[in-house]
Amino acid sequence: METTIVESDRLVQARALVASLEAGNDTEATRIIMAFPENVEKDLFQEVGRLTRELHEAIIGFAMDDKVVQAVQHEMPDAAERLAYVIEMTEIAANTTLKAVEDSMPVAEELLHVSDKLAAEWGRFRGRKMELADFRSLSDDIGGFLILASGHSKILNKNLSEVLLAQGYQDLSGQIIRRVITLINEVEEKLVRLVAISGTTRVQKTKKEELAMEGPAVPNIEQGDMLNSQDDVDDLLSSLGF
Amino acid sequence: MKILVVDDFSTMRRIIKNLLRDLGFTNTHEADDGLTALPMLQSGNFDFLVSDWNMPGMTGIDLLKAVRADPKLANLPVLMVTAETKREQIIQAAEAGVNGYVIKPFTAGTLKEKISKIFDRVAS
Hints:
heterodimer; A: mainly alpha; B: alpha/beta; five-stranded parallel beta sheet; 5 helices
């Protein structure tokens, strides 16, 4: 509707302009010409004004959104803490694994060295190339080796168990990283909405479900009432009659 | 002793299975969340359930509730092995009827202790 009015206004103005030019009325013609850009500018200013107001309201709405405030004030710094904790956790796991491997290598090497030596002696005995005195010494060595093998196997078993348990970092760091990914997705969604408001196309926002679970305890982060150790958990459970 | 280990991280399932094997339990099976675990439990004659809490699909707490609500499974011993250490959550698990609660990261000793404690109780 507005457009037709504007167009017909312009048509009236154009006819008046032609009429005044034909009549040789230069003053009137100039006045009409000068009025044109003024109209265009007025429309433009009105449109810019409207967009500015909408954007302003959108930004206020965006800033008032609790989840955005929460994200900026708490979750972003939390995410950084969480990721730093992942680095720490993976480093501890890597060091535990490396130490267990380093401790195991000389143990395995000693087993190999001693059994190789005994195998050579045993070969001499089997080939009947051994004196009785040498056999007595070999017999003692074999007895000693059996004790050594048993003790060393226990050490290797203990070290391998440490390697096994150290791999738990993958689960814990995975859970923490998943949370950070969720946060990044939420912030991205908000930013897309802001862009959509200031542009012309609106993007449908997908509502994410709230996470009720807290996930692994991360040092230096406010996570509510978290228990720090298995002992605390045991105390709580026994207070509940467990 | 037939045991079901439920965790969405396969590394953690392997760790628990290996620790259980060290403790002499070799008949262990795996599921990656409550939705896969529940039908296995309903048809599999399991003697013991070890479950994580935070899993996609169906969480460990929902699995625990479903187990307690099923007359055939209601008495199945359940050990929760989880990174969730919030006081309210542990209370919630206790109220839902969990038999033991181990927080990650754990030691082989802790797991062994909690499992023997559960079996001692079941036996008595």
